[in-house]
Write a structure and sequence with these properties.
- With about 300 residues, the protein is mostly beta strands.
- About 5% of the residues lie in helices and about 50% in strands.
- Strands 7, 10, 12, 13, 15 and 16 form a 6-stranded antiparallel β-sheet that branches.
């Protein structure tokens, strides 16, 4: 399936400036601990979450599930286990990632595409999506766990913020992750969608496995050692047509830098390269004025920063 579309979607939503607000309430993620599951005839879905399994398991004889209730957990009794699989049917075959969403998943098997709609209510502005994961990638695969926030005004629903966590590293022990949420407005969202996917790239590999457990929203304002994205600063040097990037990583060594435009298209890539004193330079010659997303890959994780390129 075309998971690059989803990964690009998540990336583009991480394109806003930091905003702060007073928190009057804190939203709980429905079944964020994955303790509750709904059993169907040939598969189970975590309560409040949607997966591709209802479509995949409707394929006669050749159907396979990609999301499972696992007893390998961080806490409680269960976690969600997402496995990328090759689905082979007469005359065709395709790779499908393990995928969960708080929204509604729409799958088109004929064209091998999908879309996500809806979500869960929210009435505040969290600063981070956090939780615990384990990851066993195959062949350089990458996972993603992301959050998208919406606001409906005058009958029109707009995306007002989001963030995601991604890694290519093998993680065999339960490990904490933090996805920094960035907003492009002072509005408070009314709907949230959380997505986790075992293979967040076009060239996915069967048997890649992601475990997710104990998802929760955090409301901490300010820099966190667990969230180096908050320490990325981008300055535009117009005289030399370069971006000067400062990264407050605990131990910045080898990094890969990528630039995406507002449509999610990659317009620049460099690395891995060594950076000194948390400083690197990114040229932007030939780029148009507008909003861009800088993605910095460091220590198996990807951190993003939105900035406005002006002339």
């Amino acid at each position: 399936m075309r998971t690059q579309r989803l990964f690009t979607l998540i990336t583009v939503f991480v394109i806003a400036s930091m905003a702060t607000c007073l928190i009057s309430a804190q939203t709980a993620i429905p079944n964020g601990d994955f303790e509750s599951w709904v059993a169907h005839s040939s598969y189970s879905n975590p309560t409040y979450w949607d997966t591709p399994d209802s479509i995949l398991m409707s394929i006669p004889i050749f159907g396979q599930a990609v999301v499972f209730r696992s007893t390998d957990h961080y806490s409680g009794s269960y976690s969600a286990k997402l496995i990328t699989k090759n689905i082979a049917i007469p005359g065709a075959a395709f790779d499908c990632p393990g995928f969960i969403t708080l929204g509604k998943l729409h799958v088109d098997l004929i064209n091998q595409t999908y879309s996500v709609t809806g979500g869960s209510p929210i009435n505040d502005r969290p600063t981070h999506l956090m939780g615990y994961y384990k990851y066993q990638p195959v062949g350089g695969d990458s996972c993603a766990i992301g959050m998208i926030l919406y606001k409906t005004v005058n009958g029109k629903r707009d995306t007002i913020g989001g963030g995601y966590f991604s890694t290519t590293a093998t993680v065999n022990e339960w490990t904490h992750f933090s996805a920094w949420i960035i907003y492009d407005t002072i509005l408070t969202p009314d709907t949230m969608n959380i997505i986790a996917i075992s293979s967040a790239q076009t060239n996915m590999n069967p048997n890649t496995t992601l475990y997710v457990d104990d998802l929760y929203l955090d409301y901490t304002v300010g820099f966190s050692e667990k969230d180096p994205a908050a320490g990325i600063s981008v300055y535009q040097d117009k005289e030399t047509s370069r971006l000067i990037v400062f990264c407050e990583f605990p131990s910045a060594r080898e990094v890969v830098s990528r630039l995406y435009n507002i449509s999610g298209q990659q317009v620049y890539c460099e690395g891995p390269v060594s950076i000194a004193n948390g400083r690197m330079v990114v040229p932007y010659t030939g780029l148009r004025q507008g909003t861009y997303i800088l993605a910095v890959e460091h220590d198996g994780k990807t951190f993003t920063k939105k900035f406005l390129l002006g002339f």
